[in-house]
Design a protein that fits this description.
Length: 440
């Protein structure tokens, strides 16, 4: 197999530079209308996610999330209106939680500076590598052209010498045939050389540096060790299969692929069947792992909950998050039934989904409508971004209420292997998962 050096350069992906990463880190939807307790919980998840990214050598995503955490506490949360009342309750667990997280800022800022150096060196090394390869390709091309020019000149001189000899010795009839043959041979050689030159130019055209996409497209680890490990992991990363993000939000943020076990919905509907018969909603949490730049739902958690025909609210959330943290899982979304309604996101559902999506862009809502009178039984949704996330984040209303804005959410399940752009959620067969029912 021929080794085409230029194609190798063109296929390399430029790592994002620090300016792009910082822009992504601070491009999130903050609003003080969301309770401080929710933001503190979100901040805890951000640190967990950053640790997971760093442990897998996804340094740029770790940098984004650590920077986002710092930005939240340095520029927003200290001004949150809930904090005024919270300071009067200095013995409350929530206030202690706020102080403990804020106390981590100095160390995090120091560690982010170290990540800053790692990422800057990686980007600089890439630029140097591309320039070096470009110069090598140019040099090889020039040497090849010189060799061909020399060979062409030599062959023309040889042809002229042979022609002079034949002109002197050949009869007139033979001379005409010989001249014709020589001209045809010369034309053939020139045409071949021109063809080779075109091929050479095509192969050695300078590669265009690809614009790096925004890698967006969310307990603090010991970063020093992880940074050293990351440098080693980066050297072997190209040998590993990595899931490439092919889906994006409406503003161009990449969405990593989210794999959901194909039999999870059926399992959930069996769990919910008792409530469904009584026309009560049931909800569950979709939790999982990050693996090679894709998310996999590995655990269906059924929290303690209070249900009505149109709502489902979790109870004892401290226990719920303790379970998730102990299992070291990402919160990848939620699933719930509409026992008396069709398959859609209500205004209450939109606010619930927003609380997941501000933590993780890829988070989803699966809605199940078991009643056979409805044509659509299963829907996989995410808020649009924009306008959905921004609109819901700035909506202070509670309960069921109308939203005048259109296109606040959309379906995001991928419609077949050949339609990857239709959604970032893939229902995958033979993907195992476990169920944890906290109601028992």
């Amino acid at each position: 197999m021929d080794y085409d050096r230029s194609s190798t350069v063109e296929k390399e992906t430029a790592p994002p530079n620090l300016k792009e990463l910082k822009n992504v880190a601070v491009s999130y939807h903050y609003t003080s209308s969301i309770p401080l307790a929710v933001w503190l919980r979100t901040s805890s998840r951000i640190l967990k996610h950053a640790e997971a990214y760093l442990s897998q050598g996804v340094t740029d995503q770790a940098y984004i999330l650590y920077t986002r955490f710092i930005d939240l506490f340095a520029y927003h949360l200290y001004k949150h209106p809930d904090l005024t009342d919270l300071k009067r309750q200095k013995d409350s667990d929530l206030y202690k939680h706020y102080l403990s997280m804020k106390a981590q800022l100095p160390k995090l800022m120091s560690d982010v500076e170290k990540l800053n150096d790692v990422l800057k060196k990686r980007h600089d090394d890439y630029i140097k590598s591309v320039k070096a390869k470009g110069k090598l390709i140019q040099r090889e091309r020039e040497e090849r052209l010189k060799e061909e020019a020399t060979e062409f000149k030599r062959s023309m001189l040889l042809n002229k010498s042979n022609k002079d000899i034949e002109d002197k010795n050949a009869p007139e009839s033979d001379l005409n045939d010989a001249l014709l043959a020589k001209k045809l041979k010369s034309l053939s050689r020139i045409r071949l050389n021109n063809g080779q030159n075109r091929s050479l130019i095509q192969r050695t055209t300078y590669p265009i540096l690809p614009l790096p996409h925004n890698n967006i497209d969310h307990s603090v680890p010991q970063l020093n060790n992880n940074i050293r490990q990351t440098s080693k992991e980066n050297k072997i990363a190209p040998k590993q299969i990595t899931h490439r993000a092919v889906n994006f939000t409406e503003k161009g943020i990449p969405l990593r692929t989210l794999f959901v076990p194909s039999n999870l919905v059926d399992k959930f509907l069996k769990i919910a069947s008792r409530n469904t018969k009584r026309k009560l909603e049931t909800c569950g949490l979709l939790c999982g792992k990050l693996n090679r730049n894709a998310f996999f739902v590995t655990t269906l958690v059924i929290p303690e909950q209070e249900s009505t025909q149109n709502t489902c609210n979790t109870k004892n959330e401290e226990k719920l998050f303790e379970v998730i943290d102990n299992l070291d899982l990402f919160m990848l979304g939620w699933i719930h039934t509409h026992p008396t309604q069709s398959c859609f996101l209500s205004s209450v559902d939109l606010h619930s989904q927003n609380s997941y999506q501000i933590m993780l862009n890829e988070a989803i809502a699966i809605v199940c409508s078991p009643d056979k009178k409805f044509h659509k039984h299963i829907g996989v949704f995410r808020l649009t971004d924009p306008p959905g996330v921004d609109t819901i984040s700035h909506c202070a209303k509670t309960g069921f209420h109308p939203h005048n804005e259109k296109n606040l959410y959309k379906e995001c399940q991928r419609l077949g292997i050949n339609n990857s752009k239709t959604g970032h959620v893939v229902m995958m067969e033979n993907l195992s998962f476990e169920t944890k029912d906290l109601r028992k």
